[in-house]
Write a structure and sequence with these properties.
Number of strands of chain B: 18
CATH class of chain B: Mainly Beta
Mean pLDDT of chain A: 86
Largest sheet of chain B: 16 strands, antiparallel, barrel
Oligomer: heterodimer
Order of helices and strands of chain B: HHEEEEEHEEEEEEHEEHEEEEE
CATH topology of chain B: Porin
Largest interface: A-B, 53 and 62 residues
Order of helices and strands of chain A: HHEEEEEHHH
Distance between the termini of chain A: 64 Å
Mean pLDDT of chain B: 87
Chain lengths: ~160, ~400
């Protein structure tokens, strides 16, 4: 019985710790990536079936030069969606991918920065072999497949942005 | 019989050689799943369809077995951004219906989920990751049948989560455990604890059990896990008994204490994959249990396996997402690793299996499988038996 009480206590303690949302997290990552530069994030209108898909242009304030592109979108792991960010350099190669919010219990390993590093530098040239180039994670197969597939879509779509 | 096998192997090879023809994108259609998810319901499923053929031994013919071994429907419903309900409804051998999982997952923050309901015990690899396309071989490893009684699930509640900064995933639950007695003995020497699984069906609850698993994925391409399970079995004899009387002593004899630990590792690098698992379970109070119920439960159960495979399609310059994995697995498991001194070990419970086979992933989510298995018992004079299996694994 005592153990049950301890257990419930821990539970209440942790239940109300809140963590950030998608846009806040995106801004944080952008600030870290372009830390020396004064930039703005401009929303790009883009029609998509997925209401979570949002595109941005990252523009240097003083020169109006495009520094890169960013997409925040979602994919489905096993049961639940997760949100992630794909950040492109100005030449439309991937600068980095970051998982922003992972909701379900299975497959959270794809948030590993080491694993996501595999996508860095990828571009439209790597589209056909991306699935094979990316090593899966045991026990996170669905999430790995899902994010890889969405990144492929993302690479195709980023081409359309001027 | 031989003819059938040869022609099946031949057709498998022909299929493999056609692998290069089908190209295109074979990954999951996650866009469709997103739409479903936006409507709050997620659907999925997996299936394992087998053909097992024991090979002719000492001139005796053996009939084959064709079985829709399991077909499972997954349904998830999302009540809010952080609260979802997950179920797996299973049809086993076509006619047996089970609920394999049914729990509420409440995402508390980035690091922690609360879970409650009917859940998988996080012990070893296959018990939790049991979708047929995620492992090699038609049948699950026998270690994950006799030592870890997959699919091992119990009612309970607890926490799970991923600490991304530390590359750790953890699970910790309190659960209802095995039933050791419900009018008759549920454990046996041969299949150890397997018969005691309550599966959430009006399960008896008399003792709390604890289970936890920690997985570390900080080393590139490698994932290692440590699991533990501790507690006492459940017995119906505890109902309506006083604390200090004869009935309570009888009830105490009908339960055993269990502490089980498991280590596992999975490695994946380009076309190469390997996994290994070791499990040790210590069972206490077996003398009283065996005496009272006339069984032969061992006081220690143990086993391990090692497996390695390689995607041979990588050897050819093909533009394909298909994978043809050639693999081998060696396993040893003993449900009489140790017995109390009044008993003698039954060496036929010390088993060694060798499995060699192919897993042909024709699309991500569908695998055609073929393998050859050899089963050996440690017992003096027991013969070696061989079996071939063909199967289909699906997961969506």
């Amino acid at each position: 019985m005592k153990k049950l009480i301890y257990f419930s206590f821990c539970f209440i303690l942790f239940a109300f710790v809140k963590t950030d949302r998608v846009e806040k997290k995106t801004d944080k990552i952008l600030l870290k990536t372009f830390k020396e530069i004064d930039f703005t994030k401009q929303a790009v209108s883009f029609s998509s079936k997925n209401k979570d898909e949002k595109w941005y242009k990252i523009v240097e304030k003083s020169t109006n030069k495009i520094l890169g592109f960013a997409e925040t979108t979602s994919a489905i792991g096993r049961f639940d969606k997760f949100d992630f960010l794909v950040l492109y350099n100005s030449d439309k190669t991937i600068n980095k991918v970051r998982v922003l919010i992972y909701r379900e219990d299975h497959g959270g390993e794809i948030g590993s920065k080491r694993w996501l590093k595999q996508f860095e530098g990828k571009s439209i040239d790597h589209l056909n072999t991306l699935n094979k180039d990316v090593d899966g994670i045991s026990g996170a197969t669905l999430s790995c497949n899902a994010i890889t597939k969405e990144i492929k879509n993302s690479i195709i779509r980023v081409q359309k942005i001027e | 019989m031989k003819k059938i096998i040869i022609s099946l192997i031949a057709s498998a090879l022909t299929l493999a050689s056609y692998a290069q023809i089908g190209q295109g994108d074979t990954t999951l259609n996650s866009a469709d799943r997103i739409i479903l998810s936006n409507s709050k319901i997620t659907l999925g499923g997996y299936a394992q369809i087998d053909y097992n053929q024991a090979l002719n031994n000492n001139g005796t013919n053996k009939n084959g077995k064709m079985d829709v071994h399991r077909m499972v429907f997954l349904t998830g419903y999302k009540f809010s951004d952080n609260v979802s309900f997950v179920t797996e409804l299973e049809l086993e051998h076509v006619k047996e219906v089970y609920v394999e999982q049914a729990f509420v997952n409440w995402r508390l923050n980035d690091y922690m989920n609360f879970r409650g309901g009917l859940m998988l015990v996080p012990m070893g690899i296959v018990n939790e990751y049991h979708e047929p396309v995620t492992y090699n071989g038609i049948e699950r490893p026998n270690l994950d049948k006799y030592i870890i009684p997959s699919t091992w699930r119990e009612m309970g509640a607890g926490f799970s989560g991923t600490i991304a900064e530390l590359n750790l995933r953890y699970q910790a639950y309190i659960m209802n455990g095995f039933s050791s007695f419900d009018g008759s003995a549920k454990f046996s020497g041969k299949s150890a604890l397997r018969g005691g699984r309550q599966k959430g069906a009006e399960s008896t609850f008399s003792n709390l059990n604890y289970t936890s698993k920690i997985e570390y994925y900080g080393i590139s391409k490698l994932k290692v896990g440590v699991s533990g399970y501790f507690g006492k079995s459940q017995s119906t004899l505890y109902n309506n008994v006083g604390d200090e009387n004869f009935e309570s002593a009888t009830a105490d004899s009908s339960v055993v204490g269990l502490s089980m630990v498991s280590l596992d590792a999975r490695y994946k690098n380009k076309g190469f994959e390997a996994r290994a698992q070791y499990v040790l379970g210590n069972i206490s109070n077996t003398t009283q249990y065996n005496t009272m119920l006339g069984t032969n439960l061992g006081s220690s159960i143990q086993g391990y396996y090692i497996e390695a495979g390689y995607d041979v399609l990588r050897l050819f310059p093909l533009k394909t997402d298909k994978r043809l994995v050639v693999f081998g697995r060696y396993e040893n498991y003993d449900t009489h690793n140790k017995v109390e001194k009044e008993m003698t070990k039954n060496e036929s419970y010390n088993r060694t299996d060798v499995t060699l086979g192919l897993t042909f992933h024709i699309a991500s989510g569908v695998a055609l499988k073929a393998d050859f298995q050899q089963f050996k018992k440690e017992e003096a004079g027991s013969s070696i038996s061989n079996q071939v299996n063909f199967g289909i694994g699906v997961w969506f």
